[in-house]
Each structure stands twice: as structure tokens, then as C-alpha cells.
Design brief:
alpha/beta; 3 domains; 59% helix; 4 strands; 316 residues
Length: 316
């Protein structure tokens, strides 16, 4: 009886806390934060396996490795002034350290501080998967971005804007965006995420971890990429931009003078309809005001007949 009860209790705990099934594979995070940010760190420390599972899969790690120290700091932190105001966090793979500026989580690609944490953890997992081997910034950021957020219509719209002139697009330019201002950096994020997502869709979910594994063995990244994808990185990005041409072909049409005039005409039609409805409502109001204060409409009263007038005259 006691054994059955313990078995039931174990199953019950797994149903309530499914992350226990993968507890040994969960990244061990050690949080440090001032007292005022303790509620945030408590929320972050409660994040379970589902948050990190995709980042682990992309990196190809069966075990996340040693503990990661996460510092959640205030805007007024001593070294906060050393970074631009739009930098919300960063990771150091060699030191297994993450710094999060809790008050700066307000810009793409992080929707919330949970997304930011997963993004930075993914950087450290990529570093560990390659044993510290070098990978391009666009590949590292692309993996981290798609590990932390679900691709949606906002990302697709940002991607179409970010590609710009396809004849000027290149991996060198994509990497250069991360060294620019806030607008350029956001452009770099969406381009790298869109490119890595496209690689996964076209060549399989195992591609990132296979490339990282080869880099860990000392294979240069361009060679590792070509061995797995059968294209060089530059060739792959050209194919990627070509696939986006289906969407890009609509941009000139939507922004053309013809479409602008159609939009103006539709807006004018809507305004005219609203104007007609207002006139009808005003006319009904005027008709109601023509009635007297008692609410009688004399046009609807029954007029007395000639006989009734004669009877009234005799009574008087």
C-alpha cells in the first residue's frame, strides 16, 4: 500500500512539474541581484525546461555544462554607463557569465526579460558546443534569437524592411550592422534570425548543431557550413534572399502611386459614407424637434367629423 502511494505521489509531482523529467539537463543558473530586483530573479529562476529546450537542441548539447552566473543589475549600476542605452544584456561564454539590465528590456528582439535570458543563455551554450571555437556573429545571434522567440508576422515584416536592396546584401554587411547604432543592430538581429531560420527550414533542424560540432573539432566555420549545407555561406545567403523575393516583389506594388491612390479613394469612400449617416441622423433629430413639448404629432391626430362639430356647437 505504501509503495503504491509513493508511486502515485511521484506521478503526481511529474504532472505538476514536468521540468523534473529534464532537471539534470536544465542549465544551472546562479542569480545575483540587488534587493529591489529580487522579484525579477525569483521569476527568472522559476523558468523550467521548456524555455531552454530549443536552445539546447540548436546547440546540440546533451548536458548544458557548469553553472552560469547571471547578474541582474539596475540602470544605475557602475558599469551600466559603459554600454549604450539600448544594450539590454550580454553574455561571456569563457567566463560563463550573463549580465541583464532589468530596466532596459524594451527593444527588439526581446519581448520580455525571460526572452532576454534565454537569448543570452543560448550564446553561452553555442560557445560551449564549439569548445570556444570561432563562429560568425550573424550565426551566433541568429541561433540565440530564434531560440528565444517565436517567428511571427512582426519578424517577417522587419525582415522585408531589413533586406533592402538585394544587390547590396551580403554577410559582411549583416555582421557590420551589429557594430552600428540601435537601428542597425535591430536590423542585424532580424536578418541573422531570418537567415538561420531559413537554413533550418530548408536543410533540417540538425544543421546548427552539426555545424557547431564540426567547429568544435577544429573545422573552420565556412568549411563546416559548406559540408553540412552543400553551399558556402555566401551562396546560401544569396539563395535566402532569392526565396524572399516572393515577398519583396509585393513591396514596390504596395508602395506604388497606384496603390496609394486606391488607398486614398477607399478612405474617401468611407468618409463619404460616414457623412451620409450623419446627415440622416441630423434629419431624424430635426423631425423629432418639430413635435411639441408634449410629444404630440398633430399630423397624426384624428380630425373631428362634421357631425361632431355640429354636436359641439349645440352643447355650447
Amino acid at each position: 500500500m505504501e509503495r503504491q502511494f509513493l508511486g502515485f505521489l511521484f506521478v503526481f509531482c511529474l504532472l505538476l512539474y514536468p521540468s523534473l523529467l529534464n532537471a539534470e539537463n536544465l542549465p544551472l543558473l546562479i542569480f545575483k541581484a540587488p534587493e529591489s530586483l529580487q522579484p525579477i530573479t525569483k521569476r527568472l529562476s522559476a523558468m523550467g525546461w521548456p524555455y531552454y529546450s530549443y536552445a539546447m537542441q540548436l546547440a546540440g548539447l546533451g548536458h548544458p555544462g557548469p553553472a552560469i552566473h547571471v547578474y541582474v543589475v539596475l540602470e544605475s549600476a557602475q558599469f551600466g554607463a559603459q554600454f549604450p542605452s539600448w544594450v539590454s544584456g550580454f553574455a561571456n561564454g569563457e567566463a560563463s557569465t550573463i549580465v541583464l539590465f532589468a530596466e532596459r528590456v524594451h527593444s527588439y528582439p526581446a519581448r520580455a526579460i525571460e526572452d532576454l535570458l534565454v537569448h543570452e543563455v543560448s550564446h553561452i551554450l553555442n560557445y560551449r558546443a564549439t569548445h570556444g571555437g570561432g563562429i560568425p556573429r550573424w550565426f551566433d545571434e541568429g541561433i540565440a534569437t530564434i531560440a528565444a522567440r517565436t517567428w511571427d508576422i512582426e519578424d517577417q515584416a522587419r525582415l522585408l524592411w531589413a533586406i533592402g536592396d538585394r544587390n547590396e546584401f551580403s554577410l559582411e554587411r549583416m555582421n557590420a550592422f551589429f557594430r552600428g547604432d540601435v537601428s542597425s543592430v535591430r536590423r542585424g538581429y532580424v536578418l541573422s534570425a531570418g537567415f538561420v531560420r531559413d537554413i533550418i527550414q530548408e536543410y533540417g533542424h540538425n544543421v546548427p548543431r552539426q555545424i557547431l560540432s564540426l567547429v568544435a573539432q577544429g573545422v573552420p566555420f565556412p568549411t563546416a557550413f559548406q559540408q553540412i549545407v552543400s553551399l558556402s555561406p555566401d551562396q546560401a545567403v544569396e539563395v535566402f534572399v532569392d526565396r524572399q523575393s516572393v515577398w519583396l516583389s509585393w513591396v514596390p506594388l504596395v508602395t506604388s502611386n497606384f496603390m496609394v491612390w486606391i488607398g486614398i479613394s477607399m478612405l474617401a469612400f468611407v468618409v463619404f459614407g460616414m457623412h451620409v449617416r450623419r446627415l440622416k441622423a441630423r434629419r431624424r433629430q430635426q423631425e423629432e424637434e418639430e413635435q411639441d413639448d408634449w410629444g404630440f404629432d398633430y399630423g397624426e391626430l384624428e380630425q373631428p367629423t362634421g357631425v361632431e362639430w355640429d354636436d359641439r356647437s349645440r352643447d355650447s
